[in-house]
Amino acid sequence: MSANPQHVTEFDPDSPDTQPEGSLQALIARVEAEVRELQFPGFSADDALNLGLLLVELGKERGLPIAIDITRGGQVLFHVALPG
Q1: What is the DSSP string of 20-50?
Q2: What is the pTM (predicted TM-score) of this model?
Q3: What is the mean pLDDT of each run of 10 residues along the chain (84 residues)?
């Protein structure tokens, strides 16, 4: 039987109360891990177009009033606003 990992209560940025010790550090570690995981090894203009069109398709299917803006180094690679 394995030991239970230590449970840390989620950090709540909207709470005026004192936060449990370690909760902010746990949140920071989780966000940093997500950033590392979500990094692309490369990202071309074609990649931006394909991603943008996929998001447009999903947004239309779901009837979402969303704006999609994909930039790289200050250059706009894809931009659209769906109605709503």
Answers
A1: PTTHHHHHHHHHHHHHHHT--S---HHHHHH
A2: 0.59
A3: 60 84 86 91 95 97 97 96 91
